[in-house]
Amino acid sequence: MAHVDIMLCDWRKYVLYLAYLCMAMSPIFMTTSCSKESVNHNENKEDSDIEGRPTLYSSYKCDFPCTIQSTSFLGDTIIQFCDGGYCLEFDFNDVSSPIFSYELPFLDGDNIHCSTSHVYVDGTDTLYFVKGIKFTSQIYVYLRESGEFKISNIIYYPVIGYLPNFALDTEQSILYALTYTKNTYLDSEDNAIRVSMYPYYGRDINQIGPLLDSFILPFVPVAQDTFYDNGKLYLAYGDPYTKSSGILIVDVESREYRNYNLRKYLSPKEEPEGIFCYHGDIYVVTVLGNIYVVKLENEEDNN
Fold first, then answer.
1. Judging by beta carbons within 10 Å of its beta carbon (0-12, 13-18, 19+), is residue 278 exposed, middle or buried?
2. 3-class secondary structure, 158
3. Calpha distance 175→196 (Å, rounded)
4. Which of 94, 74, 58 is nearest to 291 (CA)?
5. Which residue ranges make up each domain of the chain?
6. How far apart are CA 196 and CA 73, in angstroms?
7. What is the residue-averaged pLDDT of the chain?
C-alpha cells in the first residue's frame, strides 16, 4: 500500500503540474499578436477570420500577352505590372485606357511573381521592383526619366526565404521583406510568413544593411502583393486553387494582425494580385483586371 500511495502522490503532482503549465501558456494562444520568431501556425482559422466587403470600383484589361501581377500607386496614378516586365499606367479617376504602356528593362529571370514599391524620394519618381517566384536576392531600382522608368541601380540582399514580397517605409528608412518559412506557398503544415526588417540606405546604395529584427505571422496561402502605410503592412493573398482570398493587415509596432476574408464576395477566378491605398481606402486588383474597394469590418478596432 505504501508503494501505491507514493505512486498516487506522484500522479497527482504530475496532473497539478500540467494544469499549472496550461494556465501559464493559455494567454500565448489567445492573443493575435506575434512575438519574435514564434507563432501558433494554425491560428489562422476560418472561424476567426473577419469579413472584408469588396465593391467593384472599375476594371481594365492588360493588352500585353501576359497576366496581371503586382500593383503600385503614387499620387493619382496606378502602375499595373504584368509578368514579363510589362507595365500599364492608369489615371485612378479614369482607367478606361492606359496613360502609358511599356516594358521594364531588367535582367532575364523568373517574372511570374513580382513585388513593387512606388515612392517619391528626393524629388524623383522612384520604383523598386523585385521579381521571382522562388528565391531572389535583387531589388531593381528605376527612376522616371522623360515619362518612362529607366533602371538606375540593383540592390543586393541576403536570400532570406521563399516567394518574397517587399514594402518600403521611407520615413523610418526600413525595408520589410515577407517570405515563407518553408519552400512552398501552398502547404500550411509547419509553415508561416516571416517578416524581416532591414535598414534602407537609399536608392543609390547597392546593398541593404544587416537584419534589424524579424517576426512570424500565421500562414496564408499564395502571398501576392504587399504595401506599407502608416505603421501597417497590408498583404493580399489567395488564388483559385486554394479557393482563398483575403488581406492580412499587421501593425508593425505591436505586431498584432487581422485576417480579412474576401472569398465570400469574390468568385474563385478573382485571384487577388495587387493591393494599394488611396485616400485611406484599400483597393485590391484581381487577375481579371477588376479593381475593388474593400470595406474592412471592425478595422476601427485596429487603429
1. middle
2. coil
3. 8
4. 58
5. 36-302
6. 23
7. 75
The confidence score (pLDDT) of residue 194 equals 94
The three three-digit cell numbers of residue 72, written as one number: 503600385
Phi, psi (rounded to 5 degrees) for 136: -145, 160
Please tell me the pTM assigned to this model.
0.77
Confidence of residue 33 (pLDDT cuts 50, 70, 90): low
CA–CA distance, 119 with 96 (Å, rounded to integer): 24
Domain 36-302: which CATH number of 2.115.10.20, 3.60.110.10, 3.40.50.920, 3.40.50.10420: 2.115.10.20
CB neighbours (10 Å) of residue 296?
Answer: 18
| Calpha distance 269→247 (Å, rounded) | 17
Chain segment 69-114, per-residue pLDDT in tens: 888 877 788 888 877 677 888 888 888 888 888 777 665 544 556 6
Residue with cell 493619382: 76
* CA–CA gap between residue 285 and residue 235 (Å, rounded): 12
- How sure is the predictor about 135, in pLDDT bands with cuts at 50, 70 and 90? low
> Residue 219's pLDDT is what?
93
